[in-house]
Specification:
Layout lengths: L3 E3 L4 H9 L4 E3 L14 H20 L6 E11 L2 E3 L5 H11 L3 E12 L4 E13 L4 H10 L19 E5 L2 H5 L3 H10 L5
Parallel strand pairs: 1-2, 1-3
Antiparallel strand pairs: 3-4, 3-5, 5-6, 6-7
């Protein structure tokens, strides 16, 4: 199988690529993640996932890779969109917003096929309900450092799972790569042919 360039430094996404047995090379694209304020979570993640692919294309120049994958995840509570916390205070602020509330996790995946510059982008939306968190629980969780690099400041595949009452949607999408959607994208694009 062809090598896929994973335009992401996310260890979680890399773990999913390994799980699927894909040959890949991961590169951090370090794109500007600012977007227009009025974008929906889906529009925002789709734009950012495609920006990551385009940045990877720029990085390779004329040596166009056969395949590039970019993905982006945001968490939202109502109209408030949350990316990754900048520091402990920001992580605590996000956890206060999540506490006792339903929130949405939106992950978009962009797949680029180099031979004909084909681009597909698909989105997974999941709804989670967080438990009501005490100040002590928030302080403890922030002290673990697990919030670093996690959209919304809560890492569901780690200790953060103890604070989630229920999930409606794709667990892998919440973690950062919706496996069903990604598999279908690869299959539809002829990757397995």
């Amino acid at each position: 199988m062809d090598t896929i360039i994973l335009a992401s430094g996310s260890k979680r996404r890399q773990d999913y690529f390994k799980l699927l047995g894909l040959t890949f090379s991961a590169i951090a694209t370090n794109i500007d993640e600012s977007c227009e304020a009025d974008l929906s979570p889906s529009a925002m993640t789709e734009e950012l996932a495609q920006r990551k692919v385009k940045k990877a294309l720029e990085m390779f120049g004329e040596r166009r890779p056969a395949w590039i994958c970019g993905a982006d995840t945001v968490v939202s509570v109502g109209n408030t969109i949350m990316g990754k916390p900048e520091n402990e205070a920001d992580a605590a602020r996000m956890l206060h917003l999540l506490s006792g509330n339903e929130h949405q996790v939106t992950t978009s995946v962009a797949l680029y096929r180099g031979k004909d510059a084909y681009m597909d982008c698909r989105t997974s939306v999941s709804i989670l309900k967080a438990a009501k968190l005490s100040e002590k629980e928030i302080d403890w969780y922030v002290s673990t450092g697990e919030w670093q690099g996690a959209a919304g400041g809560l890492c569901i595949q780690g200790k953060g799972a103890i604070f989630i009452d229920n999930i409606n949607g794709s667990y892998s999408g919440i973690v950062g790569l919706p496996l069903r959607e990604f598999y279908c994208m690869l299959k539809d694009a002829g990757y397995f042919s």
